[in-house]
Known about the structure:
By secondary structure, the protein is of the alpha+beta class. It has 13 helices and 23 strands.
Amino acid sequence: MTGLPPDFSSQMQALLGPEFPAFLEALDQPAPLSIRLNPAKPSGWTTKDLEPVPWHPQGRYLPERPQFTLDPAFQAGAYYVQEASSMLIGEALRQILDLSLPLRALDLCAAPGGKTTLLASLLTEDSLLVANEVIQSRTLPLRHNIAKWGLPNVWACNHDSREFAPLEGYFDLVLVDAPCSGEGLFRKDPDAAAEWSLNNVELCCGRQKRILADAAPLLRPGGILLYSTCTFNHREDGENARWLAEQYGFSLLPLSLPPEWGIVDTGAGYQCYPHRVKGEGFFLACFQKPDDGKKADRAKPRQNKKWSALAKIETGTLAKDWIHPEKEVSFLQNEKQELRFLPAGLLEEAAYLSNHLYRLLPGQSFGEQKGKDTIPSPELALSTWVRTDIPCCELSEYQALQFMRKEPLAGIAGAGWRLMRCEGLGLGWAKLLPNRLNNYFPTEWRIRNL
Length: 450
């Protein structure tokens, strides 16, 4: 790969020694392409004969890049296009945490949502995952990807890590996938190489320490913190990991990884190099907070000023028509008559967190009330909690693309709301009237590049 910054080349030569030429050769090869399947949304991709990612049961390598935008299964959330090395987080959690328990988890630097959706698939239905992104413009793709994954126990918010301070001791798991200098992305993004400098590495290192310092108190005693970057240098990786362990008394947790995977144990975490693994550069360190036996004080939730819970009678009426009968659900409503739904066991958590995180969206969007009518939300169409016997229209792939382009659809009869599906996967809503079809697919999600 030409155009590497000289300081970066010197750094990597010092890190890798005799492996440096193989590293350079790997950067000249095409980057591997991988996806991660959504176990809650089986599709045609589930049965395709594809090379598996060794460290993740739902990870698959693709031999070539399809037009993902034009794949209804992608738009419906049947899979997420994710770099293979970063899927190592799933293997780490399976080894160090009892995932059969209900957990409170936080993805502190969540956009665009790859690691959020990975965590969501690992957690139980009665667990809670808060997905935070500090940059407001990045919350829109995060919310869209969460919606496509279809789980109402994943809640997005938009806060600086400092603003989580009132939640000291609340979480069982915190993931800090920290903003970094991006050395592991040079092969995919030459602009990242052009922007790299030793000064930027130092800026990133300081920012990462600040985020880690904000994250550490949020864990309960004995809780788990994962720290990851997509970079190689010791300043952002191993040195920050050792700093966290020393500063807060956290224990670095070892993983048992087969040697044939090619992942390097650095002594302060685990490193993926592109000449050793079929993936990009990635660093992961796993920590456990000391268990001092103390429990965080938690005030009784105050009345949520923004969202109020619906009464059981109203909840039952709404759930009966739209939500899978086996799901125990609660509903929240705001002053604009917007409705959100969530697992019933998380209602108290919604009240507690909403009083501390004022830009939190608890639960999944359900729709809004207009008089006696319910207007279903686009997110509801993507939910895994929607009734399987809800009135629907099964579309061909061509019709699905027409629907998502908001083009006219002919030959569809009936009356009332219909879930528009392709291969059994929900895409959005349409309302059938005697002489036309009203397409409720969101304009901001509309497919334009055909």
